[in-house]
Amino acid sequence: MIETINLTKRYGELVALNNLNLTINDGDCFGFIGPNGAGKTTTIKILATLLKPSSGQANIGGLTIGYQNRQIRPLIGYVPDFMGAYEDMVVTEYLEFFAAAYGIHGSQRRKVVADVLELTDLTYKATAEVNSLSRGMQQRLSVARVLLHDPKVLLMDEPASGLDPRARIEMRELLKELRRMGKTILISSHILPELAELCNVVGIIERGQLLFNGSVEEILKRAKMGHVIHVGVTDRVDDAGKLLAKMPGVKKVTVAADDPTVSNGKGGKVIHLQFDDASGQVFTDIPNVLVNNGFRVTKFTEEPVNLETAFMRLTKGLVQ
Ligand SMILES: Nc1ncnc2c1ncn2[C@@H]1O[C@H](COP(=O)(O)OP(=O)(O)O)[C@@H](O)[C@H]1O
Ligand SMILES: [Mg+2]
Questions:
Q1: Does the C-beta of 45 come closer than 6 Å to ligand 1?
Q2: Which end of the chain is more exposed for a tag (fewer CB within 10 A), N or C?
Q3: Tens digits of per-residue pLDDT, 204-253?
Q4: Whole-prediction pTM value?
């Protein structure tokens, strides 16, 4: 549905997008993740036909941006990072105005406006002024606006930024609903966990280059360099640590205070074993080695890889 081929954008000397190659299939929810300045807005604006690429190509529904913009525009709904003017209008007027711009008239228009208000949970604000709405409601109104012409593709630039936790959850629920409706969604964020639950595919962009493109599971796997296993023994923790340090594949051993939330508040110490890679063979030998050397094992778990950490590892130190 969406495809970019060596898409490049320069602003003078600055290369904001550097040969970006993306493929987003029909019905995908693609999470476009990267720190500020990575090139997310630039990419989205090009796809929204608002900005010309310096080189390379972008296609939506088999049509090429810059050549077939007129045919592309009805297919897409673009939610910019900030809402534009028109804020002294009443919610219904605002939507009617845009519906008219899309050539929707008469009773059809009233129906469409009522439908999008319902979908975005704004029916009770139909007669409120746009500028009286909270940021969360304004963001949902922005989404309502781009749904008027029932586009197949939604391009959303950080729709959840600046929202409080409740508004974020409401936005997420709305996006899930749009997915269920079969929309193809590209949504950007600088926070990976925010999109992990919602999207089936993610791309991590940094300094205009795609660092990673794949599923959330793949990201976690990738970021798992330095796999950590937690091992607990009843006593002689330091000796057990020294013994395990000699095992193949073990990169680093630290003896740390156990996390009381994990060990039922008992406290105590636990050994953290960091591995070079995820070769299963090594892990499974650990309890045996300990038992054969007279230790009694109380704990043997893998440290969960946190999405935040994964993101930091993948983009470390590259912020422009
Ligand atoms: N109109 C512009 N003129 C010059 N530089 C720009 C312009 N828009 C964006 N940039 C630069 O391009 C890079 C990418 O910006 P942007 O696409 O807005 O990133 P993001 O949305 O990921 O934060 C940044 O370094 C930014 O400063
Ligand atoms: Mg941006």
A1: no
A2: C
A3: 898 999 988 888 778 777 666 567 788 999 889 999 999 999 888 888 89
A4: 0.78
Ligand 1 atom with the shortest distance to the CA of 34: 22
Q: Which two tokens stand for residue 52?
A: 């010309």
Give the atom of ligand 1 at the shortest distance from the alpha carbon of 39.
17
Question: How many Cβ atoms from other residues are within 10 Å of residue 205's Cβ?
Answer: 25
DSSP conformation letters of 82-148: S--S-TTSBHHHHHHHHHHHTT--HHHHHHHHHHHHHHTT-GGGTTSBGGGS-HHHHHHHHHHHHHT
Residue 150 phi/psi, 5° resolution?
50, 55
Rounded to whole angstroms, the Cα distance separating 186 from 207 reads 19
Q: What H or E segment, with its residue span, contains residue 218? A: helix 216-222
The predicted-structure confidence for 242-282, as pLDDT tens digits, reads as follows: 999 988 888 889 887 776 555 544 557 889 888 776 555 56
19: nearest Cα among 10, 11, 7, 9: 7
Distance 15 CA to ligand 1 centre (A): 9
pLDDT in tens, 167-202: 888 888 999 999 999 999 999 988 777 787 789 999
Q: Which tokens hold the place of 89?
A: 């209008």
Architecture per CATH, 2-84+132-222: 3-Layer(aba) Sandwich (3.40)
C-beta of 232 in contact with ligand 1 (< 6 A): no
Strand order in the sheet with 29-33: 76-79, 153-156, 184-189, 29-33, 201-206, 209-214
Q: What is the DSSP letter of 183?
A: -
- CATH classification code of 228-304: 3.30.70
Among 15, 20, 42, 211, residue to substitute to test ligand 1 (most atoms within 8 Å of Cβ): 42
End-to-end distance of the chain based on CA atoms, in angstroms? 30
What residues does each domain of the chain span? Answer: 2-84+132-222, 228-304
Minimum-distance ligand 1 atom for the alpha carbon of 17: 14
